[in-house]
Amino acid sequence: MKLGIVGLPNVGKSTLFNSLTKAGAESANYPFCTIDPNVGIVAVPDSRVDHLAEMYHSKKVIPAAIEFVDIAGLVKGASKGEGLGNQFLANIREVDAIVHVVRCFDDSNIVHVDGSVNPLRDIETINFELIFSDIEVLDRRIAKSTRGARNDKALAHEVEFLKEVKAHLEDGKLAKTFVVEDEEDQLILNSCNLLTVKPVIFAANVNEDELAEDGQENDYVAAVRKYAEDVDAKVFVVCAQIEQEIAELDDDEKKEFLEDLGLKESGLEKLIAASYSLLGLISFLTSGEDETRAWTIKKGTKAPQAAGKIHSDFERGFICAEVVSYDDLMENGSMHACKEKGLVRQEGKEYVVKDGDIIVFRFNV
Ligand code: GDP
Asked: Can you give the residue ranges of the TGS domain (predicted)?
């Protein structure tokens, strides 16, 4: 999964990106944490992976991973190609979801590019750039399809449909709020790969004293939440500065530090939970002496396709999946005990894999 971090300058993007990638890299010893300064791979914290690895004395532990991309150059005018704007927009096109950092903290020492703190205006500024870029994509597509539309009914319909989408965007609305009734039309829209259909998580960056989970949220956060509801986005409240401090700590210190702040989870954990839920993702597990590994799939994925995540041969030659749930295994202490109780199931092609399934795939080569 690939997440792109966007936001106006000085809202705390780099602070958040650096702390997320550092925390994720350190906690799981991920071998390839930094590909380039703007891309970081973060291990998904999952205690199930650690417990399983212990049980099987696995030589290697490979947690699920999320790739974060710091897309710093999205500023006012980016869509007009000012600076490196277009390149940044192209980067966003490749992510599965957008993490949009909005400034929800007051601090007179840190200049806001537009002179005052106003998260909704900030969101609108970024959205405008994304919408503008989408309109350009549509214009090109409409022009191309129009050339072939004279003798092709389907293309003629496509042009009409895309013009409607464009009018919606020109109203300042996101493509994801455009209601598509027809399946064919949905496919056309998907093929445009617009930026404003991408799932969005707002990272409301607050000050340390506003972070406690039982405390009152500030008005900025409340405004972001209300907006997010309207566009089907998620919100997570974070203090980038605190995350930076957390990233320096080892696991025990971290726990204590979070408790002192009245928090259950770090920002990284909250963000990962929000992303999994927003994108409808779950993890299944494979475990043995060689390695224990978590694999990320979409909810609803069937056994052969889940097997295909590991290797395409597993999918092609799929025979069956031997499945036990993580909870059953932990409760009974060993695979042997689970087998005796009949808790290890043989599942076929139509089996829908569940979160926390531990699976051995049987396949023909
Ligand atoms: P970017 O331009 O969006 O990448 O922003 P930076 O991460 O460079 O942060 C801009 C400034 O805001 C830096 O001086 C940070 O230390 C500061 N900053 C980031 N997060 C917070 C926060 O939660 N509270 C406060 N008071 N300052 C923050």
From this structure: 280-363
Q: Is the pTM of this model over 0.90?
A: no
Mean pLDDT over the full length of the chain: 88
Contact 204, 235 (CB under 8 A): yes
Sorting pLDDT into bands at 50, 70 and 90, what band is 216? confident
Would you identify the CATH topology of the domain 2-46+63-113+198-279?
A: Rossmann fold (3.40.50)
Residue bearing the CA closest to ligand 1, atom 6: 12
Q: How far apart are CA 300 and CA 354, in angstroms?
A: 8
Percent of the chain with pLDDT over 70: 91
- Among protein residues, the one whose CA lies closest to atom 19 of ligand 1: 12
Domain 300-363: CATH superfamily, name plus number: Beta-grasp domain (3.10.20.30)
6 is in an annotated binding site: no
356's CB contacts (< 8 A; 6+ apart) are 48, 282, 283, 284, 285, 325, 326, 327
Q: What is the CATH number of domain 129-196?
A: 1.10.150.300
User: How many angstroms separate the CA atoms of 288 and 286, rounded?
Assistant: 7
| pLDDT higher than 80, residue 34 | no
Contact of 63 with 43, CB cutoff 8 Å: yes
User: Which atom of ligand 1 is least distant from the CA of 70?
Assistant: 4
Indicate the residue type of 199: P
How far does residue 363's CA lie from ligand 1's centre (Å)? 51
Q: Which residues line ligand 1 (CB under 6 A)?
A: 7, 9-15, 105, 107, 110, 205, 207, 239-241
What is the Cα–Cα distance from 187 to 174, expressed in whole angstroms? 17
Rounded distance from Cα 241 to ligand 1 centre (Å): 7
pLDDT at 213 over 80: no
15 is in an annotated binding site: yes
> What share of the chain in percent tops pLDDT 90?
60
Mean pLDDT across 179-198: 95
Ligand-binding site membership of 86 (annotated): no
The closest-lying atom of ligand 1 relative to the alpha carbon of residue 205 is: 23
Compute the distance from residue 11 Cα to the ligand 1 centre, in Å.
6
Domain boundaries, the chain: 2-46+63-113+198-279, 129-196, 300-363
Residues 289-322 pLDDT 10s? 999 999 999 999 999 999 999 999 999 999 999 9
